[in-house]
Amino acid sequence: MSSYSDRLTALREQLKRDRLDGFVVPLTDEHMSEYVGAYAQRLAWLTGFQGSAGTAVVLPAEAAMFTDGRYTLQVREQVDGGTWQFVEVPATSVADWLGGHAPQGGRIGYDPWLHTSEWVKAAEKALAAKGATLVAVDTNPVDAIWPDRPAPSDARLVVQPDSLAGKSSAEKRAEIADWLTEQKADAVVLSALDSIAWALNVRGADVERTPVALAYAIADADGTLDLFVAPEKMSDEVAAHLGNAVRIHDRTDFAPALSKYAGKRVAADPERAVAAIFDGLKAGGATVLALRDPVVLAKAIKNPAEAAGHRAASVRDGAALTRFLKWCEETFPNGTETELTAAAKLQELREATGLLKDLSFDTISATGPHGAIPHYRVTEESSLPIKPGELYLVDSGGQYADGTTDVTRVVPVGEPTAEMRDRFTRVLQGHIALATAVFPEGTNGGQLDSFARRPLWEAGLDFAHGTGHGVGSYLAVHEGPQRIAKPNYPGGGPAEPLRPGMIISNEPGYYKAGDYGIRIENLILVERRDVPGAEQPMMGFETLTYAPIERRLIEPALLSQAERAWLDAYHGRVLDVLGPQLNAEERTWLLAKCATIGG
């Protein structure tokens, strides 16, 4: 198993033993998580791909890697193109590809704990045209050949104080019970890890960068709840916090428990609950209601305590990032730093706050050509030296008990070219257009996405990722259901109206393959906006992130007076908010960075 080629060969041999003609390997876990624990990193182990979204399909004579536009460059850098075909979604779906490539009459395996029921239906339909069948496996064949597969984390649960959560767990369970009554349902399965963490006001350390615990929950209409979690993860403090209305079971008891709802109406989220959950409920005689997890929207709309916590975390995090940007400007011209050392320095500065729990994702520390890979992940093997003439892009964030941050800035090493300044300024114009948007109640992010793209479109340019994603409250850095993206952007689901209290990112970018990348990202909070004479409720955004935007990369002549006014006002707020957090030397540096923009 010393090479990825060996692993692919071993999987094919295992499939023969299992009487399968193919197998599908998604990048997720039993909870349909985006970021997964080490034990569930099957795709990375098999292929070498380090992105956060992708799927592999292995057939006897073919193997294909499916990724979206965010990973077009990254997948080719990390996965052997001589062994794997590269297929882009959504242009081609996994199901459609299987329909065209599976052997006639073949048996294609899948793990029902790693796919949704909708995916299963689509794959079955596509395979039927070839006389092939989709086969649910009891044991994942990748696990069977993975000799040193890590065990799931045994980290303990911890209590998230009500003062930071803004509501008690009992209040949240009561709201879930009210929802169940409205739906005429007896229970709802909560399988998304962040939904469980939010509903119970607990956090964990089972998934790197996301403070959640491996667990399942079933909430009943009487306000009680069954929590399925490994016994060693519990403590007396957590048990006391949860109280008698939360019944604790071993996590291994979850699948059998699904058979105990005969004659009951049980809700499960078709997007977040895997096929095995739907199958288990139906086999046990339950009537399954395919409804969105009721926690999803409640969690996305931050209450006043959560919003206040995020503001405090943003100030703390912004000061650390500002110190880092100063260090970059002073150190990079020496030619002594690499992508890895820079990422380590930024983490050191966040840790110096004394309140950092974890990073919110692996820092995207990318210089030169790596900056053109939107979700680049630096490793010992890939780390490049940071050299004069390049743009250094850093996308990073922290997990604090009071908030989750995510911010991107770009640092020029030496004198940027005219093209770099033009592209950066267009990205900035798009960022400002979204930050200043005023829109009627009921507007969704797809309707706002083009605000951020228009300055690039006018020059015949674009970027291949979404403009904004939701952010959790000391939870997942990528949180739904809201987003700002093109309507056909991968991720699926109906467009969600933006509501006051939602936190979302504002991150347009530009990427020149093989040369450099640009992205400017702040987090923004949806708020009500008083518009004189408005005939309907209106909304806008409060910018939550504070860090200087590099003036050396701005071409002032491209900016309108309104855009200059926004930039000057933003930098004025950065000075006001961060100034008290910095020492005299740091404040002097920041003062220069926040000077008003010239004409």
From TrEMBL:
InterPro entries in the cross-refs: Creatin/AminoP/Spt16_N, Creatinase/aminopeptidase-like, Creatinase_N, Pept_M24, Pept_M24B, Peptidase_M24_C, X-Pro_aminopeptidase_P
UniProt keyword annotation of Cytoplasm present: no
Domain Peptidase M24 positions: 310-527
CDD domains: APP (cd01085)
Creatinase N-terminal domain: residues covered: 7-138
Positions of the Peptidase M24 C-terminal domain: 537-597
Gene3D superfamilies: Creatinase/methionine aminopeptidase superfamily (3.90.230.10), Creatinase/prolidase N-terminal domain (3.40.350.10)
Keywords: Aminopeptidase, Hydrolase, Metal-binding, Protease
GO CC terms, sorted: cytoplasm
GO molecular function term, any single one: metalloaminopeptidase activity
Protein family membership: Belongs to the peptidase M24B family.
Name of protein: Aminopeptidase P family protein
